[in-house]
Structure formats: structure tokens, C-alpha cells
Design brief:
The chain has 196 residues and is mainly alpha-helical. The chain is 73% helix and 0% strand. The chain has a single domain, classed as Four Helix Bundle (Hemerythrin (Met), subunit A) (Up-down Bundle). The structure holds fe (ii) ion (FE2) (2 copies).
């Protein structure tokens, strides 16, 4: 939506181009890190839940949609994906540590900054070594079918604040991250026409 494009300062992503969509999500992830850093109390808790959800569905979509394609579609793709999966694993471990902390915990911010560095490094490497090759290695029909998978994943992770978050006791019981990843996998596979 236009609101989002205005907020991120980026032009609206082409909905039929999987690379444009994933790069827009990288921007949304950066914005959510800012939001967590700049808020406190319930607002920070809410922003952090949205960040965790977006990271979970973003990485799941990449693992289901673009990594398998990259692996077989350009020379050296196998190694590029291996390196990216290594980075994703490291980020997920930091995320799991963070997820068990309250956002008011004194160790939360240093851990969040570590996660931010890991995620930024990973996103840059994807854009540089993987996404550029994906665009060159396929046609618009294939980019659009991969985009459908990524959009199905994105629908599982609202990036806007929850209404009423400022009210006391706003409880972000959104379920464990692993379950969200499983549901996202199913949604992506369905959208791309491969069940199970
Ligand atoms: Fe990734
Ligand atoms: Fe990514």
C-alpha cells in the first residue's frame, strides 16, 4: 500500500517480481528494527513481535522459493545458497535467544543489536550474490510465480502496529515461531501449486 511505500521512502515494489518483493521486505525488516529500538514498554513488545514474525516468514519464503531456484539456476549457485543458509542459521540462533527475553530485560538491546548486524550482513549478501543472479537467470513468468509464494508468506506477518497496543496488558500471544514457520511453508507451497 502507498502508506507503506511513503513510510519506507522506497518506491512501491513490483508485486510480480520476487526480487523486488524480497528487497522491499529487507527494507521493512530494517524499519522494524528501528521501531523496536525507538520504542519502549508495550509498544516495543509489539514492534518486536512483528519483527520476529516478519523475519520468520521472510526466511521461510526464501528457503522455500528462491534458495531452491538459485541452487540450480546459475553457476556457483549451490555454494552461494550454502553460505546464505549458514548465515540464516546463525541469525535464527540469536533470534531464539532473544525470543526468550523480555524486551525490558537489560540484555535485550545488546542482543538485538547483534541480531541486527547478522541480519543486515545476510541481507546484503543475498542481494549481492543471489538476487542479482536470479533476475538474470529467469523470465518474468517465473519471477511472478515465485512472487506469489512470497506474497502468501507475507500475509502471515502484518508489519503495522496492532490496534490498541498502547492499552495495558496488550498480549502478543501469537504462537511459537516454529509453528508460524510451518504454517508459512504450507501457505507458500499451496500458492505455488505444490502441496506437501
Ligand atoms: Fe535470507
Ligand atoms: Fe532475505
Amino acid at each position: 500500500m502507498t502508506v507503506q511505500a511513503e513510510q519506507s521512502g522506497a518506491p512501491p515494489a513490483d508485486d510480480n517480481d520476487v526480487v523486488a518483493l524480497l528487497m522491499r521486505q529487507h527494507g521493512d525488516i530494517r524499519n522494524l528494527f528501528d521501531e523496536v529500538e525507538d520504542s519502549s514498554g508495550d509498544a516495543r513488545r509489539d514492534a518486536f513481535r512483528r519483527l520476529v514474525r516478519l523475519l520468520a516468514v521472510h526466511e521461510t519464503a526464501e528457503e522455500e522459493v528462491v534458495h531452491p531456484f538459485a541452487r540450480r539456476s546459475f553457476p556457483g549457485g549451490e555454494q552461494v545458497v550454502k553460505d546464505r543458509l549458514q548465515e540464516e542459521k546463525a541469525a535464527k540462533e540469536t533470534l531464539a535467544d532473544l525470543d526468550s527475553l523480555d524486551t525490558d530485560d537489560p540484555t535485550f538491546m545488546p542482543q538485538l543489536m547483534k541480531l541486527r548486524r547478522d541480519v543486515q550482513h545476510h541481507a546484503r549478501a543475498e542481494e549481492r550474490y543471489e538476487f542479482t543472479h536470479i533476475r538474470r537467470s529467469t523470465d518474468s513468468a517465473r519471477l511472478a510465480s515465485m512472487a506469489r509464494g512470497v506474497k502468501a508468506a507475507e500475509a502471515m506477518a502484518p508489519t503495522r502496529p496492532h490496534p490498541g497496543v498502547e492499552s495495558a496488558g496488550a498480549n502478543m500471544a501469537l504462537g511459537p515461531v516454529a509453528a508460524l514457520m510451518d504454517r508459512t511453508k504450507d501457505a507458500v507451497r499451496k500458492a505455488m501449486g505444490k502441496d506437501g
